[in-house]
Predict the structure.
Amino acid sequence: MDERCRAAAALIFAADRPLSLDRLCQFFDCNRADLRPVIDQLLQLYPVSEGGFYLAEVAGGYQFRTDPDLAVWLSKLNRERPFRFSPAALETLAMIAYRQPVTRGEIEYLRGVDSGGVLKTLLDKGFLRILGKKDVPGRPLMYGTSKYFLEFFGLKDLNDLPTLKEFSALDPDLDPEQKRAEQDGTESFPPVASMTEPALK
């Protein structure tokens, strides 16, 4: 492993957030084409399940993450109580993830209950961001997921979110209306229980 490859690995390891390829290029004063082979080499050197950690492409960047199978061991190291989603928070987050940009009114129409408190909690925790105001009377705020949302769930980008077809393949008891939506190509967001919490980072 040459010095630049070792340096890139060290930078990614030391960063508290995923480092994008553009950000890494700034450190090395080079272009993306020059640094791409370095990243490819690191991905080969630190694959999933070859050791206790691996290099992952998440939230538009690169980050070393621990093997999910080792979460029970890592929980012994970190005694702090992990963040737990309430059913309401998980339902709201799933709606926003699959329908963004979306307003509070649209969320409350779908859920049938007030969602102000849940939205505030998700904003405070960094899972959501405000995308602007909708061009309708009252100019309500529009919500979308943040980069931290992608990082927390280990997603490269929003295209990595599971589709309804993938959920129906896993769940033979999926609601008939959702199966029809899959066949018609008009997918709604998947069942809330499908968005599970990730292993410890």
Q: What stands out?
A: The chain is about 45% helix and 10% strand. The domain at 3-77 is CATH 1.10.10.10 (Arc Repressor Mutant, subunit A). Residues 17 and 179 are 38 Å apart (CA to CA). The two ends are 25 Å apart (CA to CA).
